[in-house]
Amino acid sequence: MGKTLVAYFSASGTTQAIAKTLAEVAGADLYEIKPQVAYTSADLDWTNPKSRSSIEMKDLDFRPPMAENAVNIAEYDTILLGFPVWWYIAPTIINTFMESHDFTGKNIISFATSGGSGIEKCENNLKNQYPKSNWLKGKLFIGGASKQQLAQWVSELNL
Fold this sequence. Notes:
Elements: E1 4-8, H1 14-26, E2 29-32, H2 52-58, E3 78-84, H3 92-99, E4 107-114, H4 120-129, E5 134-142, H5 147-157
Parallel strand pairs: 1-2, 1-3, 3-4, 4-5
């Protein structure tokens, strides 16, 4: 599939751990999608309707600004796109990232972390929002993933 990028957003470090190992086993470059203002524990309190993440996820048109945008997507054929599942979908900063670059014709494979939510709604929403990309079936990781599990998945992807 050519050159691969692992791009990820991680609020608590769970997705980051998987992304770093995934980039290593895939021989891919790594890029962190960082919000301009980092999320605090209070921001991530999904039980508080006034928390930052709750407010953002209620307004799906909201696009949190990224801290930087220093990645040249044109260099890559395949993007492994990682994020935690928030309210059954990808966090809105993933939309900020997607709308900041031209992913036309790129192979995109999502991977998500979750305490129990599925990835299907995330994938369907992203496919519908960004139809010019070639969306391949992604993978959900609950409770993390070992290097061996990630290597097996990369092998199945034929990157």
